[in-house]
Write a sequence for this structure.
């Protein structure tokens, strides 16, 4: 479904991703872990289409198409969704209007009929109940004045409504208490299916107790330096990142 | 003869002709004021950018145009031509003025409660001489302001609204000023007087529109007298042609514990000056001054606020949002004057601006003059572009770029529109704002 080959990305003149390779098949859950500043969030943002990053080399194929040539909204319409690490507050734009517009843009792109206000509300309420999201969020402006936890839940709620094919969670677990973490995980797990793939970008292993990944990759200094199964996450939790970084440094001259 | 003297002479000549005619129409008692105002205008001349209150606005295009008074026998538009200017859902009284002259055949006076008068000022003179003589030209500062002096010298008509003590008029009164295309540029001096008695409530909409593309100049002055404990809302809508000139002066005199809201929405006109001048004369009054100005092309929109706190325990709130595109120029000049005895004043001013193009320009200037020592005054201004993070967020959810931009602009304008409590007016203004936005068509189901 997603194939990243030798991806190099610059931001503000500095190279952040230095040749990332990753293959994600439908039905799989991958986790990308790594220390601060390793480029995890950059990878997530580049996949979502953030234009402040400059792709200097490499390619990304998503469902057979070149992802990097697609506008962010086109990617969304093709089923890609990124849960933001820092969701943006948009005063004056109602959450309901925003999400209905988003859903209908995506439905239109898929050749489905647009939902009217009533059908949309029924759908939204159902998802909110399932995710234990306070339905007062619907009447407020997008993320405005939301607590950190509310913002993250709102991301997962949007994901549940938009039903993406490829979901990317960018540190959705950071700053969440255990209850919120369980709810977020339940939301993600309910999306798991043979047709979908999920990429969980995280700093901590904790979330992976609830969203059990098929593969774990460690990103260090802009490269994936180690890949393994879910047990790799536990090892990182127990031993920290230093040993992987040391291994990466030792191996660097050979791969350079 | 200098060019500047020549600019004033045009009006002196015109004044001599007017005086004879106006006197015959019942304005005899006003003659001394008229002459005084004319003399003041001759002294003051048109303001220049050296004048602190006009620093950002050059009125030379107005001063140099040889405007003529509206023709007496002008062709009256058909009633159907007013349809685009109607507010769906608004069923109250409507007074229509065509090139400054009252057009009864286009106006409709709904059933009004006892104690409410809505008519043209000229018609009101015989019926309400005491009220008019007590208030007309008693508030607007024709001694200081050249445009007010000009209006006062040339006043012929406008709207007269009077609401008796204890009377509540729920339906807004719509005052529609229509400029038509004329062979020569026409100047009009709409003069409105609104008198709200004690414990009364009334909403008035002052609405300037154009039929065709004439280079008209509307030089309007509205005096509002708000009695004790009364609630008054005023809306100014400027949607004239992009060639029009408009100087509108709102002067509000607020009694004890009165509550006033002034809403302005500027969309049209080539050169627009919006003066809002409330004086909180009685204790415990409050006013909300809310505005939205949207300029594009080479439009120039100047908002000049002068909020005077003359009594203790009064509150004022100013919120102005501007969106500037093309090579347009916006101005927000917000004065707050707190007089010596106005202790416990609570005054706040916020001006926010979005610049959509490289060449658009905004000048924003707070000016606080505080002569009391126990007051709270705050002001703040921002100038920025559309938030690119927010654009990306919306796009990442499937909303196309243009719609995302439109949505954010509409939300920004919405901050001002949300403060307008009359739903029929707000809804219609939302539609006008959406039409104005380059991406407006994409926002059809926003509302």
């Amino acid at each position: 479904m997603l194939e990243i080959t030798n991806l190099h990305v610059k931001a503000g003149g500095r190279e952040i991703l230095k040749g990332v390779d990753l293959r994600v098949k439908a039905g799989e859950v991958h986790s990308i872990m790594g220390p601060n500043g390793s480029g995890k969030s950059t990878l997530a943002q580049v996949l979502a289409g953030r234009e402040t990053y400059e792709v200097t080399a490499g390619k990304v194929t998503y469902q057979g198409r070149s992802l990097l040539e697609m506008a962010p909204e086109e990617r969304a319409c093709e089923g890609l969704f990124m849960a933001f690490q820092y969701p943006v507050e948009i005063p004056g734009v109602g959450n309901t209007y925003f999400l209905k517009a988003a859903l209908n843009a995506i439905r239109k792109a898929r050749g489905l009929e647009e939902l009217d206000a009533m059908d949309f509300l029924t759908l939204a309420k159902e998802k909110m109940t399932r995710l234990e999201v306070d339905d007062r969020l619907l009447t407020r402006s997008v993320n405005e004045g939301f607590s950190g936890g509310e913002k993250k839940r709102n991301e997962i709620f949007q994901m549940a409504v938009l039903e993406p094919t490829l979901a990317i969670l960018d540190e959705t677990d950071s700053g969440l208490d255990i209850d919120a973490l369980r709810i977020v995980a339940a939301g993600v797990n309910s999306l798991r299916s043979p047709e979908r793939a999920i990429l969980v970008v995280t700093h901590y292993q904790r979330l992976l107790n609830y969203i059990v990944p098929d593969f774990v990759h460690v990103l260090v200094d802009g490269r994936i330096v180690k890949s393994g199964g879910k047990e790799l996450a536990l090892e990182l939790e127990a031993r920290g990142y230093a040993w992987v970084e040391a291994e990466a440094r030792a191996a660097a001259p050979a791969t350079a | 003869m200098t060019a500047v003297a020549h600019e004033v002479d045009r009006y002196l000549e015109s004044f001599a002709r007017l005086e004879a005619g106006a006197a015959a129409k019942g304005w005899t008692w006003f003659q001394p004021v008229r002459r005084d105002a004319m003399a003041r205008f001759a002294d003051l001349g048109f303001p220049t950018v050296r004048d602190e209150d006009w620093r950002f606005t050059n009125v030379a295009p107005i001063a140099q145009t040889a405007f003529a008074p509206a023709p007496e026998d002008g062709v009256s538009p058909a009633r159907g031509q007013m349809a685009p200017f109607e507010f769906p859902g608004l069923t109250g009284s409507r007074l229509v003025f065509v090139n400054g002259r009252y057009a009864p055949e286009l106006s409709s006076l709904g059933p009004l409660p006892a104690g409410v008068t809505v008519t043209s000022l000229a018609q009101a003179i015989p019926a309400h001489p005491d009220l008019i003589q007590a208030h007309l030209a008693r508030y607007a500062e024709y001694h200081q302001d050249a445009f007010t002096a000009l209006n006062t010298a040339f006043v012929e008509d406008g709207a007269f609204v009077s609401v008796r003590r204890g009377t509540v008029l729920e339906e807004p009164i719509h005052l529609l000023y229509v400029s038509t295309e004329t062979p020569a540029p026409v100047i009009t001096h709409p003069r409105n007087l609104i008198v709200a008695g004690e414990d009364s409530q009334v909403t008035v909409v002052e609405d300037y529109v154009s039929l065709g593309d004439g280079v008209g100049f509307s030089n309007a002055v509205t005096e509002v007298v708000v009695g004790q404990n009364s609630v008054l809302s005023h809306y100014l809508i400027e949607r004239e042609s992009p060639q029009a000139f408009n100087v509108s002066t709102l002067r509000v005199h607020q009694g004890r514990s009165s509550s006033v809201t002034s809403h302005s929405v500027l969309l049209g006109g080539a050169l627009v000056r919006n003066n809002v001048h409330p004086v909180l004369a009685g204790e415990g009054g409050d006013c909300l001054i809310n505005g939205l100005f949207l300029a594009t092309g080479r439009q120039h929109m100047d908002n000049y606020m002068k909020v005077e706190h003359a009594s203790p325990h009064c509150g004022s709130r100013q919120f102005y949002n501007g969106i500037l595109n093309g090579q347009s120029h916006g101005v927000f000049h917000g004065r707050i004057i707190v007089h010596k005895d106005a202790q416990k004043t609570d005054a706040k001013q916020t001006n926010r601006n979005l610049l959509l193009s490289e060449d658009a320009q905004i000048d924003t200037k707070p000016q606080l003059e505080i002569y009391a020592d126990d007051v709270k005054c705050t002001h703040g201004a921002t100038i920025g572009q559309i938030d690119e993070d927010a654009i990306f967020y919306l796009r990442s959810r499937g909303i196309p770029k243009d719609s995302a931009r439109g949505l954010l602009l509409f939300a920004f304008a919405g901050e001002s529109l949300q403060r307008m409590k009359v739903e029929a007016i707000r809804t219609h203004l939302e539609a006008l704002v959406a039409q104005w936005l380059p991406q407006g068509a994409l926002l059809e189901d926003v509302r």
The two ends of chain B are 57 Å apart (CA to CA). Chain B touches chain A through 25 residues (CB under 8 Å).
